[in-house]
# Entry
Amino acid sequence: MILDLVLLFLILLVAIAMVITTNLVHVVIYGAIFSLLSALVYLVMAAPDVALTEAAIGACITTCLFLAVLKVIKVENGQIRSHWGVLGACVIFLVIICIHSLDLHYYGDINAVTNQGVVDYYKQHFAEDAGLLSMVNVILSSYRGFDTFGETLLIFIAGMCVWLVVGRDRFIKGKTDEK
Amino acid sequence: MKNNIVITVTRFILPFLIALGFYVQINGSDAPGGGFQAGVVMASALILFCIVFGKDQLEKIITADQLKILAVMGMLLYGITGVICIIFNGKFLEYSVLENYFFEKQTLGISMIEWGVGLTVFSVFSLIYLAFISIGVKEKK
# Structure
């Protein structure tokens, strides 16, 4: 409980620092710290799958991608000017999120929508249906196998589109020609 | 990057990172993790190698074209598993028809599609990073 509160307080501090700073590199580093703390929070909430994903995607790959992009765009030392309009947009967004967060259920609430429906069936039958020990894996790949197929296809198409837009096939071929 | 400390630490840490990726992939059916997480860990290992030793060293091991082929192979592995289930008188992605003496219930089908997901995620994230890296290289020249 105390660990939970300390982690959430640290996340709040990092988020405020991320909003206030005017250096883009600092923003990226704060984002990495934010993701690591979020991963710890997920671990405390007994969701190790999500924690593993958050630590690898949020802290490692997203940071590397943003740093690679910062190398490409032209910003002097990563400094950006702050606008009052941005602050206003942030405040409006914060108010909307606070209003909607009142509708959220408490953590572990048995009456929440996500804890009703087919969840009971999954909990009781996943071991005898699939013969595996990991319920998350059985739900993702067996009960929801078609959805996972679509997600994998989505990732594949996204990667190919990024390579089509910014990849340099021509550059790599030219380099091999020189040799 | 030619810093001795960084290079030494990277040489020490890379085998463990790759081993963690394979562990998460193979043991994903009984422990936290799975194909997606394993692919991301392996991609982060590749990105670390690319940052420390440079893109030229990376192209001696694996090139962007090979990564594209790997991504397609991952998707094909997923799809072909579904088609194999149809051939064995099941529905699309109904793994229980693949049960035999070595693999009980749906274990074989699930591990096959996890390998497909892992392969695709690994290649796609590496490919996205290589795409952004190659923009910067072109502007320098």
User: Anything to note?
Assistant: Residues 4-140 of chain B form one domain. Chain B has a mean pLDDT of 85. Chain B has one domain: 4-140.
